[in-house]
Amino acid sequence: MTPKTNAAPPRSLLRTYLALGRVSNLPTVWTNAVAGAYLSGAAPSARTVVLTAVALSFAYTGGMFLNDAFDREIDARERPERPIPSGAIGAAHVFAVGFGLLAAGSLLVLFVTHTLAPFAWSLALAATIVLYDAWHKTNPLGPLVMAACRALAVIVAASAAGGEITKPVACGAAALLAWVVGLTYVAKKEGAVSLAGAWPAALLVSVVVYSLPAVIRVPGGTIAFFGMIGAVAYALTTLRGTSPGRFPRAVSVLIAGIAFVDAALVARTGAGFVAALVALGFPVTLRLQRWVRGT
Question: Which of 90, 96, 180 shows the shortest CA–CA distance to 143?
Answer without folding.
Answer: 180
